[in-house]
Amino acid sequence: MKKDKKFGTRCVRAGEAPDPSYGAHTTPLYQTSTFIFDSAEQGASRFAGEEEGYTYARLVPNTPTHAALVKKIASLEEGETGQTFSSGMAAITAVALSQLEQGDHFISSDVVYGGTYGLFSSVLAKFGVEVSFVDTSDPEKVKENVRKNTKLIFLETPANPTMIICDIEEICKIARETGALSVVDNTFATPYFQRPLKSGADVVIHSCTKYIGGHADLIGGVVVGKKEFVRSMAPVVNCTGGTMGVHEAWLSIRGLKTLHLRMEKHASNAMEVAEFLEAHPKIEWVRYPGLPGHPQYEIAQKQMSGFSGMLSFGIKGGIEAGRKLMNSVELCSLSVSLGAVDTLIEHPASMTHVNIPAEVRAKVGITDDLVRISAGLEEADDIIEDLDQALTRL
Ligand code: LCS
Q: What strand order describes the sheet that includes 181-185?
């Protein structure tokens, strides 16, 4: 397929080729741990990296199913190539372990998924890698925190769960001037709405568990970047073994085929829910990048073509009222994760972000009253009716 096709066409077509063995229409699921060599010489040259091809499914490029997924997501992110992982956290871990070493410093958005916070603040600290959590919505603060040994700048935008947005272009410029690698977790926006590589980022990360899979039935991750960068991760990828399962790769390919259609509906539903909540007398505040009152509304307009399906809000009466709301919904699923076909509702301070110390949570805006919604693909009226009946019971 030529590279100039439109996004939706690439969702459907990129990375797909008729199966060379039998002409299967759908990319086959290569459920195999190992590959047979034609000769001992061929095996040796594949292991030596002299001949392209497959060896063992833990080792890059894993299997042809994984390779097809890499091609599709790289096409959508407008990157050169990529690497799949067993989870979004395995993807972030491999980027960090392959790019950072003892004595290095890196900057991270201060609002990130709880697992990412734990990796950065506890796990990497054990290996002598120091992190500064910075309010990346303010590029000046990023500049102020740059040190001589700053090797990487990690951004999550929109941030989970506060929906804070940072200016990817501005911060990637700072990273370039610093000589640091810029890495963007694009899980919330997806390439349908935001393409960080086009805004100057070096690397994009996704949890495939979310919108890429899209159906809440897999755990996976992917990294996209330049060939040279992806090659530099290979030793860590091969030796740590956070390999994506082949079924997950296949499900991710299937999910991506409808990404463009799903994201439109997620976003329009989220907008309607955000507007409903904003007008509701029992709601204290709503944070959705599509609302003009969002603190970084202008930046969102500049770097996103739509605002995805995630929003957060606070209810009058704080956490107690929030708990009551979550216990009163009937259609929405009381569940963590996001990007599912059904609408999910959860409480970050006690669930997804509970491992972040309470004082840190309070400082960065992951307040106890914050409730997060991942708008699903039901009809907006039904989601709103459910939230309305739950709010009436407060
Ligand atoms: N990046 C972001 C922005 C995430 O939200 C998550 C998980 C990850 C990375 C890690 O991906 P995983 O390893 O789970 O595939 N976020 C979750 C959440 O908000 N609820 O449950 C998981």
A: 81-85, 221-225, 203-207, 181-185, 150-156, 105-109, 130-134
